[in-house]
Structure formats: structure tokens, C-alpha cells
Amino acid sequence: MWSLDQIDQPLGDDAARVQSMQAPPKRVSTAATLRLAFLSLGVVYGDIGTSPLYVFSNIFPDGIQHREDVLGALSLIVYTITLIALVKYVFIALRSGDNGEGGTFALYSLICRHVKVNTISNQHPTDRELTTYSFRAVPEKSHAHKVKVALEKSQTLQKILLVLVLLGTSMVIGDGMLSPAISVLSSVRGLRVAHLSVSDDAILVLALVILVGLFCMQRIGTARVGFMFAPIIFVWFLAIGALGVYNIVVHDPSIFKALNPHYIIRYFGRQKTRGWESLGGVFLAITGAEALFADLGHFSASSIQLAFTGMVFPCLLAAYMGQAAYLMKLPDDVNDAFYKSIPKTPAVYWPVFVIATASAVIASQATISATFSIIKQAVALGCFPRVKIVHTSYKYLGQVYIPEVNWLLMVACLVITAGFRETMQIANAYGIAVVGVMLVTTLLMALVMLIIWQRNLLLVLAFLVVFGSLESTYISAVLVKVEKGGWVPLAIGAFLLIVMYTWHYGTTERHSFELQNKVSLGWILRLGPGLGMVRLPGIGLFYTELAHGVPSIFSHFLTHFPAIHSILMFVCVKYLPVSTVPKAERFHIRRIGPREFRMYRCAVRYGYKDLHKKDDEFDELLFQALRSFVRYESMVGSVENSDDSIESSRVISAEPTRSNIDSEDEGDFLGRARQDGIVHIMGNTVMRAREASSFWKRVAINFGYSFLRRICRGSSVVYHIPHESLLHVGVVYDV
Fold this sequence. Notes:
It is built from 29 helices and 8 strands. By secondary structure, the chain is an alpha/beta fold. Helix 2 crosses helix 11, helix 2 (30-43) crosses helix 16 (301-329) and helix 20 runs antiparallel to helix 21 (457-479). The chain has 2 domains: 64-421 and 438-505, Amino acid/polyamine transporter I (Up-down Bundle), CATH 1.20.1740; 520-635 and 666-734, no CATH class. The longest helix has 35 residues, at 346-380. A hairpin with an 8-residue loop joins strand 1 (390-391) and strand 2 (400-401).
């Protein structure tokens, strides 16, 4: 007799006895690390590297009142770069990546693996058997355990955590719009320093043309962009470092006394409120620091650390000290301190101007690449509408390009540049976006340090107090400039937050409806092997979001169609909170009902770095996994009795038995069905909120989520399903 408890077991149980076939990760060679460190210059460090173009002019928008203020501002710049960029990001944040991925969603995935805060319940404890699923048990009675339990019990805290992550993501996307605008506009202003006759309109048009060219280049991929841009940024850092040393020697060799933090106290003592407001300009010195972490998936932690400590950090310090030395002598030139500090001989000025302009274009690459990475993670975790994601490198999975996002960023960036026209207002907006995402990263890292790293509570609190209070001070300084352009990132962030939260809410409601209305397996068994209808040759793949159980769309199909395929498989494509799932561990299959029903259930597991291929590889891998399952099942007895499992890569041989012969017959039947073709059956669902639902739920589901589903790419496009083998089944969900 068949027991429903035996049949309807979660697919995740299959992973319990699986031995991983994945080879241990290879150690990256020194040569590869050096190569990646060089390439990272062109992708990661352009933004922070071009900050010297506009930092001092934004610190002193009304001019320098006292020469010693330059020392105070320089001291603030040096310690801000050291504490936040070097200590927080290079030494701490890069160690908290998720299997080579960085950014707010990578931190969120780490937290989801250790704390049950993922609102879509298609996970199972045995997913931890994956080789890429790093997990560390939390000791009971520890501070980490208390925080973990509090998060798991409180839905309010879970929603706050989700909103925090989505807010950080919104700010990163805002960076992708603002960074190109301020970098390019600041660089082309060098024309006015050399030729006063150049008009503002000419500078604006030149900046817009450069920005269009930058976004058009994104389609060639991060690797090629980095290969082209890295030599330019390399020369740029050498140039600003050499200019810094030159200005120190020529104008004020005593500038090193600014390393004494006492000048910071004296600066605030003189400037008071104006000094506090100037922190918004100081913070621009580290505008590209978040890209060090967000772009981690494009390179490696060691390569980013090597590039920063070996070249970027010393060259930046030399550049800022050199400008400060120049301003100590000529404080009236603060509005264009960088270009005016360059020797005016044509052999020096114009090469530096060309390199500066090229570097400013490249500077935008860091935030654009970070935007692509974090949106890809958000799509995989169900927090962003489906978009086309293109892998631009076969070697590095994290290097992606998203066409829709690229063109939307370009339009937004052009509008911001043409609308503001001046770097001062763009800088005010840019500062809010950058410090916002940094503060979110600090809060998430504190949770990672406590729950996952299980560091001492006092150490975690010290980290939170030092960096949280520092970044909170900066954000308080930039928020006072809301009326002067700071409203832009707030508006962008609010809009994107609403979009992402609406999408996530609709996805969660849809999954809950399918879970509550899944088909009874007892009902299926009572239909008999023929399911009460004609069984046609071929394989039918029913796509569902349920990790176990039969979706309601199946009963809807049986009610309206007179025939069904001879082989049926319910496919659940689910993304786990891991960076990648090896192909050897991707497919897990179970049988539904007795052998003569020829019905199966398969969980296809992906990480947020994995992508569906655009060829027949998925169909072939799935079919081979099914044949391997049937072969293995004959070795150990039926899965429903033995509760054993099979991975797609596992092949077992044995002496022929009666079970083997049945297996061979079923294998031949599968082969014939494969030749007859595969049909992909997907639900074309329409979601409606019940009339008794609250006003906000009706707005979110009937208008917000429905609109987003209409304009985003369908599941068939994301999964690269051929149109000629696709069958849509219309169904209405009243949630």
C-alpha cells in the first residue's frame, strides 16, 4: 500500500545522503592574483581614484577663510580614507563575502543561511549539504543565539531587515546614476581652466556625449572593459601620486603635520556648524569605497586588497597632500584645486587633462558594475523584477551585463547631468547615496560578525559604535543639503524601494497561495496510472514554485485538456541563499506514485551567481539526471521505500537483476519519450487580491505587482525555453 506520507516528502530530503562530487577549490596562483589586481584598477578603483577632482571644492564651497582650515580638512580626509576605505572595507568587509560575492545581498544571503528570515519557504535544512553552503552552528545560550531567536520569532524584525537590504540596494543603484554624472562633469571642467572662453553649454554637451559612449561600451563586458581601462587608471594613479609629491616639495613640505588629528579639533573649533556641514565634502573622498565590496564577484578579495594597499592608498594620500600643500600657498584656487595645481607647461597639463578625462569616464565603471552585480543577486532572491542577465565571461561567473538596467541608468544619468549642470548639486546628491549604502553595510556586517563569525559581543559593539557613529555623523551632514540636490537619491531610493518591496511581496503571496492550494496526492493516486485521460508520447515538464507537492495548475490542466504526456515531471527551479550550486549537485529527483504512473518531481537548485544557459544544456542535463535516477533506483529499491537519493552525476553499475531489467525497459521508454519531444508547461497566472483584503494589499497586488509582471520578462524568457515547445496554462489566483 502507498502511504501519502511516504510519497509527499520534501525534495530536500534527497540531499541527506549525497556525497559531493565537487572538487575542492583551487588555490589562485600569484600570477593570476597580480593580473586580477591590475584589472581591478580599471573597474573598482576609478571612482575613488578620481575623487581628488572635486573634494576640496566641495569642502570649501565659499572659499578658504583660514589657511589652517586646509590642514584640518586634509586630516579629516586622511583619517576618513584610512578608517572606512582601508580598515572597514579592505581589511574587514572583503573577508565577509559570500563565496566570492560582495554587496548588501551577499551579506543578506549569509544571514538567511544561518537565520530563518527568508520569507519564501522553499528552503530545506538538508540544502546545507551543498559544498557551497557554508554554515556554522550557533551555540545555545550565546549572545548570537539570542539575536538569532529574536530575528526568527519577530516578523517585524524580519521586515525591517528586508527593508534595510532593499534600501541599501536602492542606494547602490542610485550611485550608478550619480557617479558617472559627477565624475565626467568634473573632468571636462579642466577645459575652462586652460581656456576661459569655453562656455558652460559646450562643457555640458561634451559631458553628455562622453556619458553616452560609456554606457554603450558596457555590453562588451567587465573583463574587456577592465583590460582597456586598467592601463589608463594605472597611469592616472602614477600621475596624481607624482603631482602630489611635486606640490608637496614645491609648495609646502611641512604639510605632513596634518597627520596630527589635533588639527581636526581646531578645525571644528573655528568652523563650528560650517565645519560640520563640510563633512559632506570630506565624505566624497571615499565615494568609491563601497565598490570595493560590491564588485568582489568580478575579481577576488586578495587582488582587490593588493591593488588598494600597494598602489591606490599611497597615491591617494600623496594626491590630497599635494593639493593641500598648493592651497596652503594659493587658497583662492580652491574651486579648481586639482587642475590649477598642475604645472602650466603644455607638455604636462594637457596629458594630465586627457588622462583625467579618461579616468573620470572609467570611474563610473565601478558603480555601474556594482549595480549589475547587486541587481542580479536581487533578481535571484526574488526581490527585483525579472530582467535579462548576460554573462560576459566564462571564467568569472560574477561578471554580468543587464541591458535594460544599463539603458535606464544612462537615461537617468543624462537627465541628472543636464538638469543640475553643476557638480556642487550633484555632489550633494551623490554624498547621500554613498553614505546611505555604507551605513546599511555596517549594520549587516555587525549581524554577520555576531551570528556567523561569532565574535565577542564587545568587539561587535565596538565595530558598530566606531563605524556606525562615524557614518551617522556624515549622513547627518549630507542630509542638511536635501534642498540643494540631496532630494534626488532620496527620491530614487524611495521609488526603487517601493518597486522591490512590491515585487517581493507579490512573489511571497503567490508562493503562499500555491503552497496552500497544492493538489492532494491521494486524489492523483485515485485517478490511476492513466490519470483518467489519454497519455501522449513525449515528456511534459510542469514548472512550479513548490519544492514539494503538486501545484494546483496540474488539476486545472487535467480539467481542461483531454490528454497528457506519457512522462510527467514537476520542476521546481529554486534559488538558494548561496553564490553557486555545482552542476553535480543541482538536480534532485523523486518519483510520485507507483512506477506505472511515470510521474516525477525534480528540484533544480541554483545560486544567485548561476544563470540558465541559452542552449539545450538544461534539457539534456535534466534528462540525464532522470535516467540516472531510474538506474540508481533499480539498485537500491524504490525511492519511496528506501528514501535514497540520486544526483545527476552519479552512475552505479551492478549485475543484471529483475529490477535492472525493469530499469532498462523504463530507460528505453524514457529515451523514446525524449525523442518524441519535451513540452514545457508553465502557468500564465493572474493574481488578484480578494475583495475582503485591505486597501494597501489591493493596491500592491492588483496594480503594483500586476503592472511589474506585465512589463518584466516572463519566466519562459528567463529560462530560455524555446517558444515552439512552450505551453501556457491560464489560471487566476485570488490571494
